[in-house]
Design brief:
The chain has helices at residues 3-15, 18-25, 29-43, 59-84, 100-112, 164-170, 215-223, 233-243, 271-279, and strands at residues 48-51, 54-57, 89-95, 116-122, 136-140, 148-156, 158-162, 184-187, 195-198, 203-206, 210-212, 228-232, 246-248, 257-264. The protein is α/β, with parallel strands linked by helices. It folds into 3 domains: 3-84, Arc Repressor Mutant, subunit A (Orthogonal Bundle), CATH 1.10.10.10; 89-156 and 258-279, D-Maltodextrin-Binding Protein, domain 2 (3-Layer(aba) Sandwich); 158-255, 3-Layer(aba) Sandwich (D-Maltodextrin-Binding Protein, domain 2), CATH 3.40.190.10. Strand 3, helix 5 and strand 4 form a beta-alpha-beta unit. The relative contact order is 0.14. Residues 1-58 form the HTH lysR-type domain.
Amino acid sequence: MDLNNLRLFVAIVQTGSLSAASEKLGVPIATISRRLGELEQALNTQLLDRSKKGAKPTMAGQQLYEQVYLSIDQLAQAENLFQSARLSGVLRISTFSGFNPLWDKIALFQARYPDVQVHCQITDRVVDLIEDGIDIAVRAGELHTDSVIAKKFGNIGNKIIAHPNLLAKVGTPQHPKDLANLPCAAWAKNGQREHHWQFAEQAVKIQPILASNDSHALAHFAKKGQAFVMLSDYFADQLIAEHGLAEVLTDFAKPAYPVHLLYLSQRHPSSLVQAFLAVCE
């Protein structure tokens, strides 16, 4: 038995005619008539007596109506409730510095769910999702935990860029080893003493004039023509397009790293988490 046919039947009984039900539901009267016929055929009984004045349920039709109308009405109310319900609350996200693609997803999420406030924590340390109250953590690189569910967001590569003024002053490096004698600004964790830039086939040790865990600080030094910097490919492309910086060492491949959205595996994801994950698909 088709549930939609039952809905149409209930609407006919409640409105008193096929034409009135058609107007109420916005369904062509021919469709309603056909669906009613399908329902009567499925039940092998006549449900309505039709006349010029309208349609009245037969004895069998009245019995069917009394059995199903409350359930149909409650189902309609439930559908209206969920359709009109708007997500609200706070979604707490932890991500690393300079991951610009995430901001596009957050903007799209908030356009869809304007009643949700997003609180974004910028950190590169390992977070405890429960203790830190984080719903979703965004992390790059290989994962070393089985306590979370990881959903692939994408990949992140690296580019080395510099200002044309700096290239004119110190020259353009031809090989990664040349970086050892050039001014560089490098991403680093707190207390990190040695700094290496990784290439596909080698790692080059550098002596940065600035070390920071803030990608925007490194970008500032690049834009000022003070240092070579290694930044994520999307951030580097933005600086190249908007500030005229140039990529160097393009013939030397740099590794790419996966980026994942992490959330707790021990609990069913909340509606906020599910909605954000859907936006990121």
